[in-house]
Amino acid sequence: MFPPMVVQMINIGEESGALDSMLNKIADFYESEVDVALQSLTASIEPLMIVFLGGAVGFIVIAMFMPLLAVITNLTQSN
Q1: What is the pLDDT of residues 25-68, one digit of tens each?
Q2: What is the band of 22 on the pLDDT scale with cuts at 50, 70, 90?
Q3: Cα–Cα distance list, 8 to 11, 49, 60 (Å)
Q4: What is the spatial distance between Cα 7 and Cα 20, in angstroms, rounded to a whole number?
Q5: How far apart are CA 44 and CA 4, in angstroms?
Q6: DSSP string covering 24-44
Q7: Dihedral of alpha carbons 43, 45, 50, 53, sign
Q8: Residue/partner pairs of 21-27 with CB below 8 Å, 24 or more apart
Q9: Is this structure's pTM higher than 0.70?
Q10: Residue 23 burial by CB count (10 A; 0-12/13-18/19+): exposed, middle or buried?
């Protein structure tokens, strides 16, 4: 259930009588590993968010100008 490194470090901590310091080292290691994973996830999501927001803004701009173009073409055709 646990990674082999954790089991070995707990065994070493029990044998040496410093289980609390070994558990702290394990916690620090996995905390830094989670931080790195979150940073890489954030870095990979950021460009996708920029593209999505750009598409949303482009859609809004097109939605605003399409009725104006329709009105202008109707006015020019009626003359």
Answers
A1: 999 999 999 999 999 999 999 999 999 999 999 999 999 999 99
A2: very high
A3: 5, 42, 58
A4: 14
A5: 30
A6: HHHHHHHHHHHHHHHHHHHHH
A7: negative
A8: none
A9: no
A10: middle
